[in-house]
Structures are given as structure tokens and as C-alpha cells.
């Protein structure tokens, strides 16, 4: 019954878009947005191998992560999420495009020289950051994008 299957990547993109749309503040309720801008700030942290013991908000000692704990308290924490692919680059490409690796052409890690096929992100794929920029956000990344 492939017709009724929902692809994980498409589901992640759809949920991300719903969350983005629901972040719009009501100016009467939140005066902080009046002085800065109409759009909320978005910070998407996508770490590699974030185990339960890696952040103090999960109650693990002796981990001390006060800044991450504060972000978690003020934002959204996905506690039951999994990667749909066991490699870094395909997982990140799925997150950015909403497409599974076989549809976004990123089938292995970006720096892998072991395969003789094109393993690059297709330029015509619309990404999560493309949608943000189109809607007036400044988008950037810090750290390992690995795509």
C-alpha cells in the first residue's frame, strides 16, 4: 500500500512548516516583538549523536549545559525523534529538503570518495532555508553542514 505511506522526510518538512507558521506572535500578547520585528527568531540546533546524557535538562549528572537548558525551556524540544537514515549527509539533506535520499540524490556522506555516482544536493531542490529567505528571514548556519 505505497499510496498510503507518508515519507518521513515530507512529514518532517510539513511539521516544520506548521511550526514555523504557528510561531507568529500576537502583538497584543508579546510586546517584545513590537520593538524588534514582526517575525520570531528561529534557532534550529541539529547535533550529531545527541544522547540523553549529553544535556543537563534530561537530568543527567555531571552534565552542565545552562545555555542549552534555557533554550530548551523557552523553545521546542523533540524528545522522540529519530533519523531516517544512518549517515550524516543524507539525514541532513532530508531535514533540509523534506525528501528521502533516493529523491534528493544525497545517498552517502558528502566527503565520501568510495562511490562513482553524483552524491550532491540537487540545486533545484527547495530547502527549508530557501523557504525562510523567501519569507523575509536572513538564514545562515554555523558548524558542520556536511552536504
UniProtKB/TrEMBL annotation:
GO terms for molecular function: arylsulfatase activity; metal ion binding. Residues 40-147 form the Sulfatase N-terminal domain. Pfam families: Sulfatase. InterPro entries: Alkaline_phosphatase_core_sf, Sulfatase, Sulfatase_CS, Sulfatase_N. Keywords: Calcium, Hydrolase, Metal-binding. The keyword Hydrolase applies. Belongs to the sulfatase family. This is Sulfatase N-terminal domain-containing protein. It comes from marine sediment metagenome.
Amino acid at each position: 500500500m505505497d499510496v498510503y505511506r507518508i515519507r518521513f522526510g515530507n512529514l518532517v518538512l510539513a511539521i516544520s512548516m506548521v511550526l514555523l507558521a504557528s510561531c507568529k506572535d500576537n502583538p497584543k500578547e508579546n510586546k517584545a516583538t513590537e520593538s524588534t520585528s514582526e517575525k520570531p527568531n528561529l534557532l534550529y540546533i541539529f547535533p550529531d549523536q545527541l544522547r540523553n546524557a549529553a544535556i543537563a535538562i534530561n537530568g543527567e549528572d555531571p552534565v552542565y549545559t545552562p545555555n542549552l537548558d534555557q533554550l530548551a525551556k523557552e523553545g521546542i524540544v523533540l524528545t522522540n525523534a529519530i533519523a531516517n537514515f544512518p549517515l550524516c549527509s543524507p539525514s541532513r539533506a532530508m531535514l533540509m529538503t523534506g525528501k528521502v535520499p533516493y529523491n534528493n540524490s544525497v545517498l552517502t556522506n558528502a566527503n565520501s570518495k568510495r562511490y562513482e555516482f553524483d552524491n550532491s544536493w540537487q540545486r533545484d531542490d527547495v530547502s527549508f532555508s530557501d523557504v525562510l529567505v523567501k519569507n523575509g528571514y536572513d538564514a545562515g548556519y554555523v558548524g558542520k553542514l556536511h552536504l
